[in-house]
Design a protein that fits this description.
The complex is a heterodimer of chains A (281) and B (352). With 281 residues, chain A is mainly α. Chain A has 13 helices and no strands. The longest helix of chain B is centred in the middle third of the chain and has 18 residues. The chains are: A mainly alpha (281), B alpha+beta (352).
Chain lengths: 281, 352
């Protein structure tokens, strides 16, 4: 028995090490200077840890012809992700409420069509979407990106919420109707307070999707509205005399930090929300 | 003026006819039971009365007012649901006051109503708790409190006791009856349990396949069941029914002549095949009568059910106390011909 347990632990540690290795290399490389990197000891700890590469990635690295670092693009991502996540989650909550508790003739069909949106490859919508954004006069702007992300995320959030609502008894809604509450009051007073777990799921999911998106970002943004993912790509591809691995690594970590932080802070809600009907009636 | 009047109400879903023309009329203060097996349409009928669904045709009047197209909240009704449907995020007091709050009743009045209802149902000590912290019986009380708070013109219950254990069910049944005697609010109560129906109802509508089989007082239903279905559904143990054929001078089954009263004889003319019904309490053991052997004994304490194997089939006999006989012993069954129920062999309608 003890040997088996030991073996199990050993296997788990090996797997964890394999998965954590790239992160380790990124982190240590970002804290080294170029001389140390050129020495070639990829796995060694930095001899004189320095945040110079981080500072450069943030403030002064060149992405294409612009040499202001990632900071402005990081800002773009924040300005894009906050409204896009909030609006797509809110719309999903209302959509799910209607599709599961206020059914109407054809609501199943509407839901079926929405599901198409979940499975449709993103590439399909690129051309028509850019056409529409042009008509609306918000092409190449952060507003345009927000609209695109809200539309692209709505099917998933609707699906999350609808499935969660399916676990809420219809009698709850009927009781509130008899008590004299209408559509919005029932939503605000009875339903909304029960949604915390699934709201967390939708927020985390949408945040990750939108923050990490590259395709929409590269297609629909203009010169000064690029999200951080696109800027990161440009930074890594901008050719200069030497390839500054430490700056590239620091930039990649900066771009990944927000999603990592969200998982660390709210990850347990994510699991809880997905595995539960945890609400007791 | 009737307190509740249901007039030729029909409901169809696609091609399925769930309610086939229901007519019911009750007076203010009466306790109406809708009873029947699952799928008989009783819950659908309750939803129509509540306004949670609309009838395909027909009209519903509450307190003399046609409410057929009126939304639930304007019908002056309150309902207790099978799952209780308490709002999980609100404490008991807010659950009870929610309906009043939605109707713009001032805070002081709401609090007074909560106190009144809490005193009536003895739930004063629970007012600050959330529904998740309550037992089944307590939730049941709170659900009733929520319905009582508004003083509705009509009280609706949808199988409110079916989620409780047997002992609590009997307690709450008595409590609902007591409550009704005190408030005298007109009530419609849906159940599939014939004991609840008999014990609570002033009037009972026995339903089957979307139609009313019989509508009457509990006494009517028990002592003069209108159809064979009602006779079998109401009463426990169920009525003994023997398939019999008409003979020159009465009825016989398997060559054995069955005793009939004069009144029965006159009503027989219409049919050949007849279901001959006897309630278990109307059968007794005697020195003379139908011979049989005791097959099973079911003592319940105050009374004993004896299943007797006879030439007419297995018959249930209900006797008070304990029976001083053992399984396998020969017995003779006798009964009074006045206690016999006769039903048409094919339609199941009562004869005489």
């Amino acid at each position: 028995m003890r040997w088996r347990r030991l073996l199990l632990w050993a296997a788990l540690i090996v797997f964890a090490a394999v998965f954590l290795m790239p992160l380790y290399v990124m982190l240590t490389t970002s804290l080294k200077d170029m001389a140390e990197i050129r020495a070639g000891n990829l796995l060694a700890l930095p001899q004189a840890p320095t945040f110079a590469a981080w500072q450069k990635a943030w403030q002064s690295a060149c992405t294409g012809t612009n040499c202001g670092g990632l900071a402005p693009f990081f800002g773009n991502s924040v300005v894009m992700v906050v409204p896009a996540v909030l609006v797509s989650t809110a719309i999903g909550a209302i959509n799910g409420y209607v599709l599961s508790k206020w059914r109407f003739r054809g609501s199943e069909l509407v839901f079926g069509l929405l599901l198409f949106g979940v499975f449709m490859p993103m590439q399909v919508v690129l051309l028509p979407m850019s056409q529409v954004l042009g008509w609306l006069g918000i092409a190449s702007s952060i507003t345009g990106l927000v609209v695109v992300h809200v539309l692209a995320g709505m099917p998933s959030t609707t699906l999350f919420f609808r499935n969660y609502y399916a676990g809420l008894p219809d009698e709850l809604i009927k009781a509130a109707m008899l008590d004299g509450a209408g559509f919005w009051r029932i939503f605000a007073r009875i339903v909304l307070p029960l949604l915390t777990p699934i709201i967390m799921v939708a927020l985390i999911w949408q945040f990750t999707q939108i923050w990490n998106d590259f395709l929409y970002g590269v297609v629909f943004s203009g010169l000064d509205s690029k999200p951080v993912t696109v800027a990161l790509n440009n930074l890594a591809n901008t050719s200069s005399a030497v390839k500054e691995y430490n700056v590239d690594m620091a930039a990649a970590l900066i771009a990944a930090l927000p999603t990592l932080a969200v998982y660390v802070i709210a990850g347990r809600y994510f699991l809880r929300g997905l595995t539960a009907g945890a609400v007791k009636f | 003026m009737g307190a509740l009047s249901i007039r030729n109400v029909r409901k169809t879903y696609g091609h399925a006819e769930v309610l086939k023309g229901i007519d019911i009329e009750i007076e203010a203060g009466e306790f109406l039971i809708l009873v029947g097996p699952s799928g008989c349409g009783k819950s659908t009928l309750l939803s129509l009365i509540a306004g949670l669904d609309a009838p395909t045709s027909g009209a519903i009047h509450i307190g003399g007012r046609d409410v057929t197209g009126v939304p639930s909240r304007d019908r002056d009704i309150a309902m207790v649901f099978q799952s209780y449907a308490l709002y999980p995020n609100m404490n008991v007091a807010r659950n009870i006051a929610f309906g009043l709050e939605m109707r713009g009743v001032p805070r002081a009045e709401r609090e007074a109503a909560v106190q009144r209802v809490a005193a009536m149902l003895q739930i004063g000590h629970l007012l600050d708790r959330k529904p998740g912290q309550l037992s089944g019986g307590q939730r049941q009380r709170v659900a009733m409190g929520r319905a009582l708070a508004r003083n509705p013109a009509l009280f609706l219950f949808d199988e409110p006791l079916s989620n409780l254990d047997a002992k609590l069910r009997v307690e709450m049944r008595a409590e609902i009856k007591l409550l009704h005697q005190r408030t005298r609010t007109t009530t419609v109560y849906v159940t599939h349990d014939q004991i609840e129906a008999m014990t609570l109802g002033d009037r009972i509508a026995v339903m089957k396949d979307g139609a009313i089989e019989q509508f009457g007082t509990p006494d009517d239903i028990y002592s003069r069941p209108a159809t064979r279905f009602v006779a079998e559904f109401i009463g426990s143990p169920a009525m003994n029914l023997i398939t019999a054929r008409r003979t020159a001078d009465g009825l016989a089954a398997d060559g054995i002549a069955l005793p009939l009263s004069e009144a029965h004889r006159e009503g027989l003319a219409a049919t050949d095949e007849v279901a001959y019904g006897l309630r278990p309490e109307h059968l007794g053991f005697g020195d003379d009568g139908l011979p049989g052997t005791l097959a099973v004994l079911e003592p319940t304490g105050p009374e004993t059910y004896a299943l007797v194997e006879t030439a007419l089939g297995l018959l249930t006999v209900r006797v008070a106390g304990r029976l001083g006989l053992g399984v396998g012993e020969p017995v003779k069954l006798c009964w009074n011909s006045d206690a016999v129920h006769l039903f048409h062999g094919r339609s199941g309608a009562r004869l005489v």
